[in-house]
Write a structure and sequence with these properties.
The N and C termini lie far apart (about 40 Å). By secondary structure, this protein is mostly helical. It is about 45% helix and about 0% strand. It has a domain at about 35-85. The protein is flat, with a radius of gyration of 16 Å. Helix 2 (about 35-50) runs parallel beside helix 3 (about 65-85). The chain has 3 helices and no strands. It has helices at about 30-35, 35-50, 65-85.
Length: about 90
């Protein structure tokens, strides 16, 4: 096992499911505070279309906006999966 060297910069490893430590958050926190449920749904749908695992739900857990984001994300993934030919 390699020894930790604090002088080295972090190495992104998105293929292993690890977040890229250099990547800035996708959403400006001041923007999400102003979002209503429709905006949260649309933000989730855009994330689902990109099908990017790093697009995390930026809203507080159990909030109506978090649920709207999740619904948008899942709806967009359903649309994407229906576009794929049977394999």
């Amino acid at each position: 096992m390699a020894k930790y060297d604090p002088t080295l910069s972090p190495t992104p490893a998105p293929e292993t499911g690890l977040a890229n430590p250099i990547r800035l958050p996708a959403v400006d926190p001041s923007q999400i505070n102003a979002d209503d449920e429709e905006a949260a749904y649309n933000r989730g749908a855009e994330a689902g279309k990109r099908e990017n695992d790093t697009d995390k739900n930026p809203y507080p857990e159990e909030s109506s906006r978090a649920k709207a984001f999740d619904h948008g994300y899942l709806d967009a993934q359903k649309i994407r999966s229906s576009d794929k030919p049977p394999g």
